Model the fold of this input.
Amino acid sequence: MVDRSTKQTSPKKRFAHGQRREKIVDAAIVEFSLFGFAGTTMRSVGDRAGVNHQLIVHHFQNMDGLWRAAMMRLSEEANELMQQSMARIDQGDDQETLEAFIDSIVAFAVKRPEAFRIMIIETAADSERFAWFVDTYVRGLFETFRACLTAAQRAGVAAPGDVGTLYYALIGTATSSFTLANENAKLTSSNPFREQAIEHVRRLCRRVLGVPSADADRPG
Done:
């Protein structure tokens, strides 16, 4: 006799469950980037994701839970791109390490410009959830930059200067063309996401941090 007291979810149903959750998070990222936390509702996210908004309650309980899930997803994607960039270099080369950091920031800005739009909105609000995100995720990114930059500065392959100032100079240069893509396209009549434009941003980021160009003589 079969015991039916504990039903197990089939792999197909678990996959569909995961897919719906991913769709909701993707939709939430777009909504938060357009309207901020205050202007986003479960109904608007549900409409964008094509699901009943009650399903969002089931998965995330409330808007705060949804916002944190969206930011966690963005952080995971950023970390994955960072790991991919670092895996391609000689870990003992300070210039290559800093360049890999730059490349990962640019790649993430291209892939997820919404992340930086959300950050601009949230930093103005200065909420508890934003403080949580900074302490949980952004601080680690900043400390990684500090380590990469100071090592490159000691090796003479990066400009001297305050870490915080150079960090935000990099973030602004790496992300603005993509965060403000609509404005960029209207002003320049060109696509900021074309490969030539992306490569130009990478080169500008290196110049901002004083990284020698490929054809320049390197110290030592």
Observations:
- Confidence is low (pLDDT under 50) at residues 1-9, 11-15, 216-220.
